[in-house]
């Protein structure tokens, strides 16, 4: 028997909402039910351009989506500064919340969102899509293999893209009143999550921002980096930027093995994704090569990672609605840890690049 569809409403017509709209359509247990914008004409054009079903409701306000009794869940792609208001209101209206990242401007704001979700019994999940790709689970198997990978010692990751002049002047991610974290919140979120993922979500002891971040004329971060340090000696670094060529790398190095990939945020291809794994590699005689060389692993998927995210979220929502299950706490916990590290990086920048302790 096919799963009963969860009816999604979308708050706003952001560019990323085009991708998630398609994901909702592709997800077998979801229905694209409604969209709301501050302009009903804009909402109508968005629905028409993005394949909404003819039955979809078109609203001229976000409130109207939340007031629709048939909307089960909402996707919120609004600017980060608006997340607290609209995610809390959605939870109070008993709508389950799929929230775009970064989840908040700081962890205090995020805690208000989670408190609202928990007190109203609704599911929370952030929009970190790569977490839901089957490649991610396969890589986790390798990192957890003590014989092939050993103990994690260092992690290095970057997410950069070269934004055009219009983006750097007009995009919401460079506006202090809309997305004040800039590249740290947008691209850095993925880097921090990947580091925590590799460390099995153990928070670092301290975070130290790298010197010479690039800020625009109104103080929003366009490029920055950081180092992270754990009490057991693990270290990690990341770089995020709106000013460098498109790069999405992860390198995780253990005592016995290493993992590499170059497209962790968005795979090079929608239905397959690869990574390389090396285990107990050494030099050939006369240093002419490696023995053994890293192995290449390709993971196939019938659905793109964003549709897998929607499917998992909808499945959790359905379990709550039909079985009386409690909301899954895994996802807000991972979001909070990611936000804590982002907060520490921002604090280190603001304090002149001193080490900042991370406390849960």
Automatic annotation (TrEMBL):
<dbReference type="InterPro" id="IPR000683">
    <property type="entry name" value="Gfo/Idh/MocA-like_OxRdtase_N"/>
</dbReference>
<dbReference type="InterPro" id="IPR055170">
    <property type="entry name" value="GFO_IDH_MocA-like_dom"/>
</dbReference>
<dbReference type="GO" id="GO:0000166">
    <property type="term" value="F:nucleotide binding"/>
</dbReference>
<feature type="domain" description="GFO/IDH/MocA-like oxidoreductase">
    <location>
        <begin position="145"/>
        <end position="259"/>
    </location>
</feature>
<dbReference type="Pfam" id="PF22725">
    <property type="entry name" value="GFO_IDH_MocA_C3"/>
</dbReference>
<protein>
    <recommendedName>
        <fullName>Gfo/Idh/MocA-like oxidoreductase N-terminal domain-containing protein</fullName>
    </recommendedName>
</protein>
<dbReference type="Pfam" id="PF01408">
    <property type="entry name" value="GFO_IDH_MocA"/>
</dbReference>
<dbReference type="InterPro" id="IPR036291">
    <property type="entry name" value="NAD(P)-bd_dom_sf"/>
</dbReference>
<feature type="domain" description="Gfo/Idh/MocA-like oxidoreductase N-terminal">
    <location>
        <begin position="6"/>
        <end position="125"/>
    </location>
</feature>
<comment type="similarity">
    <text>Belongs to the Gfo/Idh/MocA family.</text>
</comment>
């Amino acid at each position: 028997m096919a799963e009963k569809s969860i009816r999604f409403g979308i708050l706003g017509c952001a560019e990323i909402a085009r991708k998630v709209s398609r994901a909702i359509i592709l997800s077998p247990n979801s229905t694209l039910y409604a969209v709301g914008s501050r302009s009903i004409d804009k909402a109508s054009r968005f629905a028409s351009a993005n394949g909404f079903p003819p039955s979809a409701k078109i609203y001229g306000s976000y409130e109207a989506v939340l007031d629709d009794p048939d909307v089960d869940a909402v996707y919120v792609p609004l600017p980060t500064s608006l997340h607290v208001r609209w995610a809390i209101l959605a939870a109070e209206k008993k709508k389950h919340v799929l929230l775009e990242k970064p989840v908040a401007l700081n962890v205090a704001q995020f805690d208000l969102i989670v408190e609202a979700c928990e007190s109203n019994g609704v599911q929370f999940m952030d929009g970190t899509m790569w977490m839901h790709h089957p490649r991610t689970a396969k890589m986790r198997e390798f990192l957890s293999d003590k014989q092939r990978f050993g103990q994690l010692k260092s992690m290095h990751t970057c997410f950069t893209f070269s934004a055009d002049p219009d983006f750097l002047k007009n995009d919401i991610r460079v506006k202090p009143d809309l997305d004040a974290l800039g590249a740290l919140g947008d691209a850095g979120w993925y880097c921090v999550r990947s580091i925590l993922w590799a460390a099995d979500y153990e928070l670092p002891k301290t975070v130290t921002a790298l010197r010479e971040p690039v800020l625009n004329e109104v103080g929003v971060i366009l490029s920055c980096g950081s180092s992270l340090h754990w009490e057991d000696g693990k270290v990690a670094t990341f770089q995020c930027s709106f000013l460098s060529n498109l790069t999405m790398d992860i390198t995780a190095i253990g005592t016995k093995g290493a993992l590499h990939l170059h497209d962790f945020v968005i795979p090079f291809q929608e239905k397959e994704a690869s990574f390389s794994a090396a285990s107990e590699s050494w030099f050939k005689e006369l240093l002419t090569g490696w023995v053994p060389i890293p192995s290449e692993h390709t993971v196939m998927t019938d659905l793109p990672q964003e549709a897998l995210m929607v499917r998992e979220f909808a499945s959790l929502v359905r379990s709550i609605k039909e079985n009386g299950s409690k909301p899954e706490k895994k996802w807000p916990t991972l979001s909070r840890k990611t936000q804590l590290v982002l907060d520490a990086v921002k604090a280190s920048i603001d304090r002149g690049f001193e080490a900042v302790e991370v406390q849960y």
